[in-house]
Write a structure and sequence with these properties.
alpha+beta, 2 domains, six-stranded mixed sheet, 3 helices, elongated
């Protein structure tokens, strides 16, 4: 298998792992939502006096979980039909790219620029890949960059400079 096809296979595996993670998160959140909704309507949650806010707090929590469930459903739907493009040598970083960076001290990092799922860390055969979205500071900084470009990465306590090693 050529390096380009190996990289494409690895990227497909990363997107499949991200979709599986989002589906697992959705299943867990749905179970939590059912339990929270049952708790919000349970007779023990009923207010015992005018300043008792247990029922109100439980209802807010149930509503928040319902909103999170809907957001995860949308993310799963988007990723289920998303097909990342192939990148050729010299192509700029765009949505669907897997990017390898290396900082001045030689430490490497890998990112997957995905439409959803930002912040997820995926353990793949060649190590860990961090998912970023175009709306994140790092994702925005990566967009449009090419191999050998230097980029200032947002980091706690300032930024650090890294070089784009590979875009696939």
């Amino acid at each position: 298998m050529s390096p380009a096809s190996t990289s494409q296979f690895e990227k497909q595996a990363a997107f499949a792992a991200l979709l599986a993670r989002l589906r697992d998160d959705l299943d867990a959140l749905l179970a939590s939502q059912v339990a929270t909704r049952a708790g919000a309507t349970h007779e023990e949650t009923r207010a015992e006096h005018p300043k008792d806010t247990r029922a109100t707090e439980a209802a807010y929590l149930a509503r928040g979980l319902a909103e999170r469930v809907e957001a995860l459903r949308e993310a799963v739907a988007v990723l289920a039909v998303y097909s990342p493009p192939n990148f050729a040598e010299g192509d700029a970083i765009a949505l669907g790219a897997q990017v390898e960076l290396e900082d001045a001290s030689g430490v490497g990092s890998r990112y997957l620029l995905a439409p959803v799922g930002g912040g997820a860390k995926l353990a793949l055969g060649a190590g860990e890949v961090v998912v970023v979205t175009p709306s994140s500071p790092l994702g925005g900084a990566l967009l449009g960059r090419c191999e050998d470009d230097e980029i200032a990465l947002p980091a706690p306590g300032g930024s650090r400079v890294a070089t784009v090693i590979r875009v696939s």
